[in-house]
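User: Can you model how magnesium ion sits in this protein?
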Amino acid sequence: MSNASLLILPGDGIGPEVMAEVRKVIDWYGAKRDLTFDVSEDLVGGAAYDKHGTPLHDDTMAKAQEVDAVLLGAVGGPKYDSLDFSVKPERGLLRLRKEMDLFANLRPAQCFDALADFSSLKKEVVAGLDIMIVRELTSGIYFGEPRGIFEEGNERVGINTQRYTESEIDRVARSAFELARRRGNKVCSMEKANVMESGILWREVVQKVHDEDYPDVELSHMYADAGAMQLCRWPKQFDVIVTDNLFGDLLSDAAAMLTGSLGMLPSASLGQPMANGRPKALYEPVHGSAPDIAGQGKANPIACILSFAMALRYSFDQGDEAARLEAAIETVLANGARTADLMGPEDGTPMSTTQMGDAIVAA
Ligand code: ATP
Ligand code: MG
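Assistant: Here's the modeled complex, given as structure tokens:
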């Protein structure tokens, strides 16, 4: 894997700050593990708008289609709030997702032991937590037609349509089963088949994909509302959760808070397999550009570093090296390393972004 290609798009706000720490990790792999990447870097979001007048240049889009993986920091910031919708920084990210056809959004919720006390729930509920939510990202109620605000009689009506085709459900279900085989071998599918036709079809297709091609994986079905309750009550019962765009949006945000901080959460968005058999892929921290702390060296780089770990695992076939990186993070946290987002108001002086990156590389 010496010529695995990676496109880095640091973006705006804290994006470039956390990405600089990922660079250190990449350099370490080159120097110490003889694992090198063909890394190129480009602009996205406000940074691209400032230079090109568009949040994603066509050349950058073309490059993203060619590489093995894209790693993105964050986009947006107050400076761009008044821009026209068509050139807003967020449009750059949406264009990447759409043109790369990234239909499966993977959001792990993993609680590092050293942070179990800090998390929003009691320690026994979250210690050792390691679940993966697979959210369908390119269809469902956010995209279905008809949509809009229409006149109806003497009032207006707002309409969105939940719409799923069998093939859209089929492909995201396969992503979930494939993932489960590499993890705890368990999938829980969540919908509302009791009140939604799309939910009935969802359940049917997921079951069929399972019975035909993944009978070895343990499959269960849950109504999404009951699933939300179970997720808070006893999240460790889950391994992989597969769900639609809307429910996935809500459930993954809820699951995120089980782990403690936005600064700890990576994500991956995967599409169809490329010629080399690996899926098209974009990795990014769940957090945004955090304008309130940008430029101050306060950002936690772990979410972005964990996103790179996901790239190692899912795009570069380096699961052992990904585990090595995650173990280094566990070690520094266990040794008490904390950026400000991982501390309470009376917990002393936090580490800077750079100090946290250096500590992880050292570990
Ligand atoms: P977006 O609209 O892009 O999702 P947002 O406004 O929802 O952005 P974020 O930019 O993710 O939110 O930031 C939300 C809060 O979390 C901010 O107060 C920010 O300071 C904090 N935060 C986000 N990421 C980090 C990080 N890596 N380290 C420390 N704090 C963070
Ligand atoms: Mg947000």
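A couple of observations from the model: Residues 288 surround magnesium ion (ligand 2) (CB under 6 Å). DSSP finds twelve helices and twelve strands in the chain.
User: Helpful, thanks.
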